[in-house]
Design a protein that fits this description.
Blueprint: H1 2-28, E1 32-34, H2 37-45, E2 53-55, H3 72-77, E3 85-89, H4 99-108, E4 117-121, H5 127-137, E5 142-145, H6 153-157, E6 162-166, H7 180-186, E7 191-194, H8 199-207, E8 210-213, H9 218-230, H10 232-245
Parallel strand pairs: 1-2, 3-4, 3-6, 4-5, 6-7, 7-8
Length: 254
């Protein structure tokens, strides 16, 4: 126990020293760029003058991403032809809580070709565990596509009927705005965002670009997927609003 206590003290000391260095660098900087308004508020609360902090939110390169027909060869390769597809495109990390999405997929898996399918494309520390979990459950409606190059990402997005944005249930992640939101908007996709209430969910609600689902509630996620898969009118309405919002989040203007 004493060894653990010493380790904790050393760890705490190291963090305090790093924070002092962080704040020193902020104070000495001519300008500070924050990626969200919440990040700016945090810095101001720690003594950084607000006038030197600019908020530059993530955006999308609209020359790279745009609506397109489903890549038929890619869909055939991954068994997605004619399937209603929920796509998570991005890092599979500890912060994303994608175990919740696997649980939702399990709730929806009825073994038929009409069952909505979850597609996960990207790298990350949690990827192998998610793949093992899906395999152990024998899920037929979960597909893992290996990490892709940036140039190939629009083709991956084209496989999706709905974009999934997913974060763990933590106040820390209420301040995060995943860049995949803006890629999905530019692709003209409705968005299912599973995240704590915060800046990202506010964007989706304000733009009417999708459905906000509470985190760590697989039944709520499964129900939202069913709602979108069965209601084409709603899906088209959200997709149109999502695409209309994309220019407001273009990197050309951020």
């Amino acid at each position: 126990a004493s060894i653990a206590a010493v380790g904790a003290m050393r760890s705490g000391l190291a963090l305090r020293l790093l924070e002092k260095l962080e704040l020193f660098l902020y104070r000495r900087s001519a300008a500070v760029i924050a990626l969200t308004g919440a990040f700016k508020r945090n810095l101001v609360s720690r003594g950084i003058p607000p006038e030197k902090i600019a908020v530059v939110i993530n955006g999308v390169d609209m020359q790279r991403y745009g609506p397109r027909e489903r890549d038929t060869a890619l869909a055939r390769q991954w068994g997605l032809t004619g399937r209603f597809t929920i796509g998570y495109v991005g890092t599979h990390g500890m912060a994303h809580g994608l175990e919740n999405a696997i649980e939702a997929a399990a709730l929806l898996d009825d073994g038929t070709p009409d069952c909505p399918v979850f597609v996960f494309a990207g790298p990350g520390a949690a990827r192998d565990g998610l793949m093992a979990d899906a395999a152990e459950r024998g899920l037929k409606n979960v597909v893992f596509i290996p990490p892709q190059t940036k140039e190939h990402m629009p083709a991956i997005w084209s496989l999706c009927d709905v974009a999934l944005v997913h974060l763990k249930d933590s106040p820390v992640f209420a301040e995060v705005i995943p860049s995949k939101i803006f890629e999905a908007m530019s692709m003209g996709l409705p968005i299912l965002i599973v995240a704590p209430a915060g800046e990202a969910t506010q964007i989706i609600e304000c733009e009417n670009a999708g459905i906000v689902v509470p985190p760590e509630d697989p039944r709520a996620l499964a129900d939202a997927v069913c709602r979108l898969s069965s209601n084409e009118t709603l899906r088209r309405k959200l997709a149109a609003s999502s695409f209309a919002a994309a220019p407001r989040h273009s990197r050309q203007f951020q």
